[in-house]
Write a structure and sequence with these properties.
Layout lengths: L11 E3 L3 E3 L4 H6 L8 E5 L5 E5 L3 H4 L3 E5 L6 H13 L4 E5 L6 H12 L4 E6 L3 E6 L8 H25 L2 H30 L4 H4 L5 H28 L7 H27 L2 H9 L1 H9 L2 H4 L4 H31 L1
Parallel strand pairs: 5-6
Antiparallel strand pairs: 1-2, 3-4, 6-8, 7-8
Helix pairs in contact: 3-4, 5-6, 5-8, 5-9, 6-8, 8-13, 9-10, 9-13, 10-13, 11-13
């Protein structure tokens, strides 16, 4: 019997050079293993070995779940339940309502599915909606997904500033339409990272060490947040009643946004290329940048009220994004 869920076994030597380790009978039975079955052995960074039955990652993640919403009237709760099951790795999600699934729920589920990469509604009836993830987790490149998310978030940010300063409401609308693309990547990466936490052997398919999971989780959250701030700036453009004519204000916004953009792009470069010294400089600049922003508030408050409010909100976004850059830089340092 195991003690505290831990088995102890002595290594035996046979044939002069072969080392054998007996497997616990209880574990073999629970895992439904038999003579001739194949085990996978995964060396860990700390020198330990992870032993598990041979399995296909996609088939293991191919489990399905049913969500009964018969006693639920909150559509937002239904959406959260569906999203949480997707992030947990379920490939088939069935939604059931004995009252009949109403039009609002169907519409909201359709919008959610549009934000989940590879997920489709494959079957529906009066009482059922069946969602299936058609993507293969093994075929996804985590680094490539992170890079793509960064490119999209960066483009959204730079374009949102241009739209704000040029009073281009058409471009602002286009920027808002790009956010779902970032959300899809965010959810997909989060799902991959959750898969690692539920099955450590999945690290080998992603080329990750367990310690890196938290790093990637922080990075994707920060990139998604940058896209959210860009979305907010685009929304402010749509709310403006006229173009900003104060040259000092436009120059200030343009220069400061350029500094912010440079900071988080440099931070991402440090993350991908292990540039420790540069990452350290970015992390240490955080306080100086905050002081620079704070020193401009007196001038901003002298502007027209509507413009002053917009600029202050934008500065707060700049400060947050600058803080994200410092977070990313610290992750780059820790990884090294």
């Amino acid at each position: 019997m195991p003690r505290n869920n831990t088995y102890t076994r002595k290594i035996q030597k046979t044939g002069g050079s072969t080392h054998i380790l007996a497997l616990p009978a209880e574990w073999v039975k629970k895992s439904e293993l038999d003579k001739g079955d194949v085990l996978e052995i995964f060396p860990q960074p700390d020198g330990n070995l992870l032993i598990k039955p041979m399995s296909n990652i996609d088939s293991k993640q191919g489990k399905e779940i049913e969500i009964d919403i018969s006693k639920t009237v909150d559509t937002n709760l239904v959406m959260r339940l569906v999203l949480s099951r997707y992030l947990s790795g379920y490939r088939v999600i069935k939604i059931y309502d004995n009252r009949g699934i109403d039009l609002e729920v169907r519409s909201q589920v359709g919008q959610l599915v549009a934000n989940l990469m590879g997920v489709e509604i494959i079957d529906e009836s009066d009482h059922w909606l069946t969602l299936k993830d058609l993507s293969s987790l093994q075929s996804l490149d985590l680094n490539q997904l992170i890079r793509r998310t960064h490119v999209l978030a960066d483009k959204m940010f730079s374009s949102s500033i241009e739209a704000f300063l040029s009073y281009n409401k058409e471009n602002a609308e286009l920027i808002k339409m790009q956010e779902p693309s970032v959300d899809r990547l965010y959810y997909l990466v989060s799902r991959q990272l959750n898969a690692v936490l539920s099955d450590f052997s999945y690290c080998s398919f992603l080329g990750l060490q367990m310690v890196e999971v938290l790093d990637y989780n922080l990075i994707i959250k920060r990139l998604e947040a940058i896209a959210d701030h860009a979305y907010g700036i685009a929304q402010m453009t749509l709310e403006l009643t006229e173009k900003i004519t104060d040259e000092k204000a436009t120059k200030f916004i343009s220069n400061l946004s350029a500094k912010v953009r440079k900071r988080y792009n440099q931070a991402m470069n440090c993350f991908f290329n292990n540039k420790i010294e540069e990452a350290n400089e970015i992390a240490e600049e955080k306080v100086n940048y905050h002081k620079e922003v704070q020193s401009t508030y007196r001038y901003i408050l002298s502007l027209d009220t509507e413009l002053a409010v917009r600029v202050i909100l934008m500065l707060r976004s700049f400060e947050r994004i600058s803080s994200y850059a410092a977070d990313i830089a610290e992750v780059a340092i820790n990884r090294a």
